[in-house]
Write a structure and sequence with these properties.
The chain is α/β, with parallel strands linked by helices and 231 residues long. It contains ten helices and seven strands. The chain has helices at residues 2-12, 33-38, 51-54, 76-86, 90-106, 123-129, 133-145, 168-174, 184-187, 203-212, and strands at residues 62-71, 115-118, 148-149, 154-156, 179-181, 191-199, 219-228. α8 (168-174) packs parallel to α10 (203-212).
Length: 231
Amino acid sequence: MIDLLNDFVNLFYPNLCMLCKKPLVRNEQHICLNCLCDLPKTSYHMNKGNPARALFSGYTQVNEATAFLFFEKDGITQKLIHSLKYKGNKVLAEYLGRTAALELKNYGFYASADTIIPIPLHAKKEKQRGYNQSELIAKGISSIYGCKMENKLLKRISDTKSQTRKSVYDRHVNVEEVFVITDAEYLYGKHILLVDDVITTGATVASCIEALLSVPEIKISIFSLSIAREY
């Protein structure tokens, strides 16, 4: 009965694919199957020595790293990121997290992860935005992997300026020592999966890794929904 009612409503107020604007059919969410197949996937998870992992090759504690989509200016991924980051599209963030996790899990990626930690926003910025997009992506991943998502273990203590127009060097300087661990004892010996929305130079993730290195016997893996095309 509910399905029939939904079908009737969709005749007059159809849900549209956010990319091609065509009506979604049953079982499609946010993005139609055609556009979903056309997403610029990196397929990095098929190669454990991929460019995302290479960005953090200097850290022996980093186990696995990948990014799901390529990010290009004015491209499809930028449209998705802007929707979930600046336009309040929270359900899209969780949906993309689940979509990526389903594919990665089939390849055995992050199989031993114990805890999922989203890259935190500063409290001021999160209050202004109303949510942390990386946390929503992490929730989607958590629902597939079944391991707990923790959003209080890593804290951003400095409200850094936007990284968008900064050079590679300035990006790294901008995020030096801006994260702290709130419960090192809980993290002792765990395999942490860090989750971000976009990797450009990797400076923000590297800063989080530096904070986590204070925890003995920690193992770290990295997931980003997207990564700059040059990587």
